[in-house]
Amino acid sequence: MPTPFDEAFRRVKELVADFKANETYFLSPQFSEMQARKDYIDEFFIALGWDVNHKTQRNPYEQEVKIEKNESGSQRRADYAFFLGPNFHDVRFFVEAKRPHGEFGTPDNYFQTLRYGWSGKTPLAILTNFDELHILDSRFKPNIGDTLSRVVKKFSYADYADSEKFAGIYWLFSREAVANNSLAKRAEELPKPKSKIFRRELFKGGGQSPDEAFLIELDGYREMLAKAFKSKNPNLNSEQLTEVTQRTIDRLVFIRFLEDKQIEPHRHVEHFGENGGGAWEDFVRVSLNLDRTYNGVVFKRHEILDAPRFQIDEKPFRIICEELSDPTSPYNFATIPIHILGSIYEGFLGKIITDSARVVEKPEVRKAGGVYYTPEYIVRYIVANTVGKVIEGMTPVEIAEMHFADIACGSGSFLLEVFDSLLRYHAKYYNENPGKAKKGDCIQRDGGLHLSLKKKQEILRNNIYGVDIDRQAVEVAQLSLYLKLLEDETLGSAYAFQNEFHYTLLPSLTENIVCGNSLIGPDILDDGKFSAEEEKKLNPLDFAQRFPKIFRRKISSGELREASPGEVEHNVPGGMPLHGSYGKASYWKKKGEKPAVLPEMEYEGGFDAIVGNPPYGAELNAKERNYLQKHFSIRITDTAALFVLQQIRLLRSNGFGGYIVPKPLIYASNWKEIRKIIMPVLLEVCDCSKVWKEVKLEQVIYRLQNNSKQKTYKSSVRKKESIESLGEIEKQLCDHFEFILSNVSPAEVALALKLKSSGKYFPEIIQNHRGAMLQDKVHPTNGELRAIGGKQIARYGLARTSKGCIRKQAVTDENAFVGHNGVLVQNIVAHILNPTDHIQIIATLLPTTLRKEAIILDTVNQLSVKAPWSAAFVAALLNSQLVNWFVYRFIFARAIRTMHFDSPVTDRIPLPTIDIGKSKDKVLHDKLVSLVEKMLEAKKQLSAAKTDGDQDFYKNKCATLDRQIDTLVYELYELSAPEIEIVEGAQENQKSKMLGQPLSDQPR
Fold first, then answer.
1. What Rg value do the Cα atoms of the chain yield, rounded?
2. Element spanning 567, H or E
3. How are beta strands 860-865 and 854-856 bridged, if at all?
4. N or C end of the chain, less CB within 10 A?
């Protein structure tokens, strides 16, 4: 049976033979590009395994190859874009086709191809006319003056018939190869550019991704525009400048998008100011005309911007228009994915314009260290497992009644994904059930059913909802959704829609995407102690008032009366009293400032799914904190925690929620109340570690379902850009470990439970306390006592570095002195990411001769060991692989934060089932002590070793003793061989064969 390569080679050789037999005609002007594509280029990629003609996949949103049908000489869309499921968002590579006749490998042709590749964030791109095929390096910003240096490999059509040369194409661009990540692997092998011109471009930003580079350009445009506005309109304040500048850039970007997508037939931006009038005058006039066609917030008349007397400095505006519309610009708006435009705008939203027309970061963004856009793969995962679960098996009629929201939507990345997933679902449904489509729902194109613009408008209006406190964010979220709505439209489909329905192309989203404070309701204003400016900044939101189709209010008459404590807790998930607008009761204040309730006041409804990345740790003033503490009845006022609770409140019965939030959700003591509320409805926790390198906190993804009765939840872990399930965990087990277990497999949990089954913990044999805070008394040389800090502690020894000395009379804290049977441990537990993700508890004993000459600082913990137990026994346990494995997973929750080795940690470390009063157990205890004593001596000898031979000898001796200690610790805790393999990581990720079984049924 022939291999895929053999079959591809056979088919391509037939194409080569046919082309050669008629080469004179094919290279003549009579043979068009469209003919070359249909007869040869299409067939070439079909031979490489691609579904070019959509024979296996009719759903237009899930097709491997998107082909530009228009042969107009336009350079706005690539001829071919190749995708691979299940991710049909991101292009794998582009192919630009030309006809065989005429010039081929020209700078212009290369630049056009590179522009598609770089804008679409693909590492390689192809330029071909079948007669030739050139592979280009599109990793870096294209420059028209240096395109010829970007060739990776050239092939002639004769090369396709050479097995070895054809393999160079097949194992890079065949469907099989691309599925095996061939393009990324090849890109890593490519050398850095050598050209002086290109290196100069890299220095100026050529090495940046299109979103990073375009954000920098937008920032520059914003400052230019702000100064252009301010110079002619000095009375504009910061808020007005920010708003008019944002709206201007939004319009320009949107127009350029329409032009490159060929939805707009005219190239407006490049012609502003050419007809004798001003560029700004033309911009305002075109915006007015486009508003009649498109509608929406983008072109909506603005009281300042579109006023007849509003003037600006023309020169900077002309420069911006020229740069955005320059044919040699590296940006192609038809190719830049919509979600990448969203990431650009997310960073854009982190800044405001001051009264003096300077662009500065918002104070809250500056404090947080920047704006961080949620990676697309995380957005996709959350949406697929919330919204995707809700609509599974539903009909379009049923979905039309559903409502999906992000109540801190920012630039709209989650809303974009929700919209995209709904479009894909509907298109797939109608292609599988063509008889179910109502008139006007679909149009026939390319052999399949495409959703009509009217249907996409309906989905957007019916299903997508968002809230953000930032008015700029609301505008950008609407803009992003509009771009998505028009993404697959053409000039023909847009005008056919208008001719048939006489609607504008963009629906109003003012009732879908709203500006307001999702955490604070209008009842905060009841005491009347807010100025107009404070109220405007608070921007309180009543969900029932803003979304009346989703939240329906029932009010019966009744007298206001004082609420009893029982009523405050009544019928609310987790005992959380709800505030003003929704829930089972509405709380009011009487003159006496006591909470009061209006009886029988109910609110029905809710969102079917709420997704997002809520803001972390936003700054709150005293009034806001007091309000939130009262209305959420929890001590914590971290905004991420409050958004978790608000999500649950706003979900309908059985609705799904999915957020990415700080990892403290699963382990921190101040999030304990949140865990109690979320645990009954929890579906999944995914440990993401650090999603953003610049953010100190780690993150987790959680999913929940209101009123869920599941007794287990899924434990998952992020591996690069994918989410991997580790299995199901029983919820009741989280009580045993005092946090939500994550990034652990059921087999690991079963082993941890076995260790805890002894019922014995470290406090039975030790007392844990820190040393003394005497750092300011330490001197490099002057003092009778040697000061020991955390950095001086090593495994079974002391580091060579010296902390210094301290005078005896300066030591007044008893915790500074080392006892006769004490173990010293570094207070900060080190997390080691490479080569394996683990921690290292570092413990040692102090030699007898040094105890009276040393003191310990508060960066060291002393574990005073109770007789008859030996400190050496405890040190062996702490330094063992087993205890480190347990502490990292089941106490520190596999966090990479700063971890302290204080009593809350040692209180939870289990002891082996051993009775030192029994001779058998005493033998094991003493054997372990003996091994530690040998280790202490070997470490001392290693430290003193001078020759390489001696160092190697004692290193090997220490390693042997380490292994013997670990083996004896395993024996003490009665571990089996498979359980030892779990600890030592011999079975990667420990995907237990028992996944899916309740843990109580698994062997212990």
1. 33
2. helix 565-569
3. unpaired
4. N
* Domains, in order of start, for the chain: 4-205 (3.90.1570), 208-367 (no CATH), 376-514 (no CATH), 551-605 (no CATH), 614-621+635-743 (3.40.50.150), 762-989 (3.90.220)
The sheet carrying 587-589 orders its strands as 561-562, 595-597, 587-589
d(CA 925, CA 873): 7
What's the whole-model pTM score? 0.82
Q: SS3 letters for 506-560?
A: CCCCCCCEEECECCCCHHHHCCCCCCHHHHHHHCECCHHHHCCCCEEEECCCCCC
Mean pLDDT of all residues in 627-635: 83
Length of the chain: 1004
Q: pLDDT tier at 827 (50, 70, 90 boundaries)?
A: very high
Each as own residue / partner, the long-range contacts of residues 73-78 (CB below 8 Å, 24 or more positions apart, any chain) are 74/262, 75/112, 75/115, 75/327, 76/259, 76/260, 76/261, 76/262, 76/332, 76/334, 77/260, 77/261, 77/262, 77/334, 77/335, 78/113, 78/116, 78/120, 78/335
> Can you tell me the distance from the alpha carbon of 548 to that of 544, in angstroms, rounded to the nearest whole number?
5
The one-letter amino acid at 287: S
Distance CA 842, CA 56 (A): 59
Q: How many CA atoms lie within 13 A of 657 on its CB side?
A: 29
73 or 710, greater pLDDT? 710
Instruction: Locate 416 and state its tokens.
Output: 């974009």
The predicted model gives 368-380 an average pLDDT of: 77
For residue 872, the SS3 value is helix
Q: Is the dihedral of CA 971, 975, 981, 984 positive or negative?
A: negative
From CA 796, how far away is CA 957, in angstroms rounded? 13
Q: Pick from 879, 776, 778: which is nearest to 825 by CA?
A: 879
Give per-residue pLDDT as tens, 716-734.
999 888 899 999 999 998 8
CA atoms within 13 A on the CB side of 73: 1
Contact partners, residue 414, CB within 8 Å, separation at least 6 = 374, 379, 382, 383, 406, 611, 612, 613
The tokens describing 576, both together, are 């959380």
User: Residue 692: how many CB atoms within 10 A of its CB?
Assistant: 16
Q: Which of 685-694, 875-884, 978-987 has the highest mean pLDDT?
A: 875-884
Helices (H), 706-840: 734-737, 746-756
Distance CA 118, CA 405 (A): 32
Q: In the block, which residue shows the tokens 């062997």? A: 1003
Measured CA distances, 973 to 754, 795, 835, 862, 970 (Å): 9, 22, 27, 24, 5
The string of pLDDT tens digits covering residues 334-369 is 888 787 777 777 777 778 889 988 888 876 665 555
DSSP label of 967: H
φ, ψ dihedrals at 58, nearest 5°: -85, -25
Is pLDDT of 597 > 60? no
User: What secondary structure does DSSP assign to 98-125, as a single string?
Assistant: --SSS--S-HHHHHHHHHHHHHTT-SEE
Six token digits for residue 61 = 């949103």
Alpha-carbon distance 967 to 964, whole Å? Answer: 5
Helices (H), 871-946: 871-879, 881-890, 903-906, 919-944
- Classified as helix, coil or strand, 844 is strand
pLDDT at res. 603: 53
Q: What angle do CA 453, 457, 458 make, to 5 degrees?
A: 120
Asked if the bond preceding 662 is cis, omega within 30° of 0, the reply is no
Show the 3-state SS of 683-726. Answer: EEEEEEECCCCCCCCCEEEEEEECCCCCCEEEEEEEECCEEEEE
Beta-carbon contacts of 507 under 8 Å, excluding residues fewer than 6 positions away, are: 295, 296, 457, 460, 461
Q: Is the peptide bond before 763 cis (omega within 30 degrees of 0)?
A: no
Q: What is the mean pLDDT of the chain?
A: 85
